[in-house]
Amino acid sequence: MTRVAAVQLAPVLGDLPGNLERAADAVASAARDGARLVVLPELATSGYVFASVEEARDLALPADDPRLAALARAAGEAVVVVGFAEAAADGRLHNSAALLDASGVRAVYRKAHLWDREKLVFAPGDARPPVVETPVGRVGVMVCFDLEFPEWPRLAALAGADVLAVPTNWPRAAAHAEGQASEVVIAAATARLNRMAVVCADRTGAERGVDWTEGTLIVDADGRLQGRVGPGAGTAWADLDLAASRDKRQTALSDLLGDRRPELYGPLAGR
């Protein structure tokens, strides 16, 4: 079993040093309590509701910034996935997530599906979600709204991901009919449809009039909720059998990936 932690933080818009310190403290605390995989929210180092591109640029980090690598040092032997505003070499900004382990930054994913006003600040990524072989297993990475495009997590599952780490900032909206935020339902369905564990680290704290769902959760490969935080800052915990994600059989004769009919799915690639 692998001990997994999803940390619900309250980033402070504009406080890059403070956010980095809070993130490092949270990672170190989770690692001390036995976490082998720690997931932090989307844009955890900067805050989210930017007034302008210039404001975001002042808070952005290049992917090779040593302050990101410092989070890996805080984690010891744990694997960390953290959302950050990335300053790319070509001058563009990306809403990104870094996967780090004891060796440093292993992968950087740039959010491909931008939500609402993010499109006024960030350039979308154009690469598939990475799936990285780590000491805890194969970890896939994407960011928030990406999860609402079923083709995207399916790509991670097809690439062999044992667990999908998803930094999120879910704005509070109408609840699901049973009182569950729609994003929480989507995360559970994604896990179930792909037989792949899903870990979503949401945020808390109001920012320029925006409140958050505070939907941090951990779902196992069968789509069963294993950990939640609820209101306020905190950490969701779960012990997951990540190897279970590699067996896609539902019955002796049913296989979620083996029973696919790609020859029939052509329109899915259309515009």
TrEMBL record:
One of its GO terms (molecular function) is hydrolase activity. InterPro entries: Aliph_Amidase/BUP (IPR050345), C-N_Hydrolase (IPR003010), C-N_Hydrolase_sf (IPR036526). Residues 2-242 form the CN hydrolase domain. The keyword Flavoprotein does not apply. Transmembrane segments: none annotated. The keyword Hydrolase applies. This is Nitrilase-related carbon-nitrogen hydrolase. It comes from Amnibacterium endophyticum.
